[in-house]
Amino acid sequence: MAVPIINSTLVSAAKLTCIREERILFDELSFDINSGDIVQIEGPNGAGKTSLLRILAGLSRPYSGTVLFNKKPIQSCRDDYQNQLLYLGHLPGVKSELTAAENLNFNFKLMGYSNFDCIDILNEVGLSGFEDSLTGHLSAGQHRRTALGRLWHSNANIWILDEPFTAIDKKGVIILEQLFLAHANRGGCVILTTHQDMNLIDHHSLKKIQLDYSLI
Ligand SMILES: Nc1ncnc2c1ncn2[C@@H]1O[C@H](COP(=O)(O)OP(=O)(O)OP(=O)(O)O)[C@@H](O)[C@H]1O
User: Which CATH architecture has domain 34-50+85-209?
Assistant: First the structure.
């Protein structure tokens, strides 16, 4: 992993506006995300959390405004940004016709990584003994754990995670929180959505961005 400068700004949202179906989800939203930050995007269902994460990841465009990486618009440094980014969306990107080990192997090779031990990582995510099981035959939580395994061998500084705790049991949530803290302490950042409270990550470490749209 590239050595990050602690407290340097990694990602900035500059006056982001997102409109869906003629509804303004957020308007001129601006914030900085620094190395060492763990940032939770909060808001009710439909508030625009996934929309914001997708814009931050460069997967969709805002109505107006810019996402900056190292103070440059991400469109002008796409490759550098992608190399620093790990995005896990709602759909975990796990192929059900591959085994858990094959899925990880496929993803790491796609990201250009070498020197990884899938068996070791599957052990870390609690899937020891399921290495050769087709992921289509795994439970929802085990499926999600297969996807999350990518976090254990990631060169990316910027993790953008859409509801990473979905279907994960209490012990798994604690392990993930520890992983996020370790990543932040190394100078990375984690930007995530979740509808549940995080217990391990104290209020000093956790920043919150509130999206206010309410369906009611
Ligand atoms: N590509 C799209 N085209 C049209 N509308 C969209 C699109 N993507 C999202 N929306 C709408 O934008 C609103 C916000 O969706 P989004 O998925 O960002 O919300 P969310 O805060 O992540 O919700 P949840 O907590 O339920 O996951 C929703 O009403 C959704 O229908």
Answer: 3-Layer(aba) Sandwich (3.40)
